[in-house]
Design goal:
5 helices, globular, Diaminopimelate Epimerase, Chain A, domain 1, 334 residues, eight-stranded mixed beta barrel, single chain, 2 domains
Length: 334
């Protein structure tokens, strides 16, 4: 066997999380962003090996644990998907909070255990409820999140001018109500929603230069979130679908996407500090989100957002590559 990698698999709201436990080579770099660049430039064949078919699929998601460069962190991780490596992933962080306790990386403390996870976007405090030694619901507090642009018009060939907001929640998202395209996030075909979101993503990437106050590595559009347009605070769930990376569909409500949506809602004064919103995904999974604190990020008024959800274990695998298996290096079918 030329490659042997072991993983533990979980899901959060239906969105997969494949966590590497053994088999990855050492990843050099002084900082987590340097390590992210290293795996992108030198180890990308291993991402394809785990994420692509025949071991994964078009919408698979993965986590590579690495050594933290922050003394306060209990663990550090890189995120990977069908296109590359993201800077933040809320659904994975929720799963990792439970994983850290179940695997003994952090001692369980009742009624709640805190796990500090260093992500490429910065440290995230993850709080896991523990009852009779068993972890349950997980909530995390985001890095500073902010509204980058509001009511920005981009031109598209199919839909003409489209008005979007752009929010940062550990990653940048364009956010737009689905009814601009004659679609409904709860009833329209997923394929139609993906096509519309992908058109928006392509337009924003070309027409809207992004910048992040902390690091240029964070300044890229991760995807587009189509919503039901219900941004004003209510006690009923607001639905969205997140299409990220290369037209990858998040089965969960998207933790970093919820963070970005709450930041945009707060900037528009549609939600107050500690008002809890519920967000629904295409699977019917629910996350809650609320503004935890008001802060700044560079010159941007910002907030930290608390997002909560539930993760479950689905399996444990040992993946091989035989030395004569060229197809087994990975491929994608759409």
């Amino acid at each position: 066997m030329t490659i042997t990698i072991r993983t533990i698999d979980m899901h959060t709201g239906g969105e997969p999380v494949r966590i590497v436990t053994e088999g990855y080579p050492d990843i050099p770099g002084k900082t987590i962003l340097e390590k992210r660049r290293y795996v992108r430039d030198n180890l990308d064949h291993l991402r394809k090996f785990l994420i692509y078919e025949p071991r994964g699929h078009y919408d698979m998601y993965g986590v590579i644990p690495i050594k933290p460069d922050m003394p306060s962190a209990d663990m550090a991780v890189l995120f990977m998907h069908n296109e590359g490596y993201s800077t933040m992933c809320g659904h994975a962080v929720i799963a990792l909070g439970r994983y850290a306790i179940e695997q003994g990386l952090v001692e369980a403390v009742e009624p709640e255990t805190t796990v500090v996870i260093q992500c490429p976007c910065g440290p995230v405090n993850v709080h896991v409820t523990v009852t009779d030694g068993q972890p349950g619901m997980v909530r995390f507090e985001s890095v500073p999140a902010f509204a980058f642009a509001r009511d920005k018009t981009v031109e598209t060939d199919i839909y003409g001018p489209v008005t979007v907001d752009i929010g940062y929640g550990g990653a940048f998202y364009a956010v737009v109500p689905a009814n601009q395209f004659g679609l409904d996030v709860r009833t329209s075909r997923t394929r139609d929603l993906v096509d519309a979101a992908s058109i928006v993503t392509a337009a924003v990437k070309v027409q809207v230069p992004l910048a992040h106050p902390d690091n240029d590595d964070l300044a890229f559009l991760y995807g587009t979130i189509l919503t039901d347009g219900k941004d004003a605070f209510t006690n009923t769930p607001t639905a969205n679908i997140c299409v990220f990376a290369d037209a990858q569909v998040d089965r969960s409500p998207t933790g970093s996407g919820v963070t970005a949506r709450v930041a945009l809602q707060h900037r528009r004064r549609l939600i107050a500090v500690e008002q809890v919103r519920t967000f629904e995904s295409v699977t019917g999974a629910l996350f809650t989100g609320q503004v935890a604190t008001e802060t700044t990020c560079g010159n941007f008024p910002a907030v930290t957002v608390e997002v909560s959800g539930m993760a479950h274990f689905t399996g444990e695998s040992t993946f091989y590559l035989e030395d004569n298996d060229t197809i087994g290096m990975g491929f994608l079918m759409r």
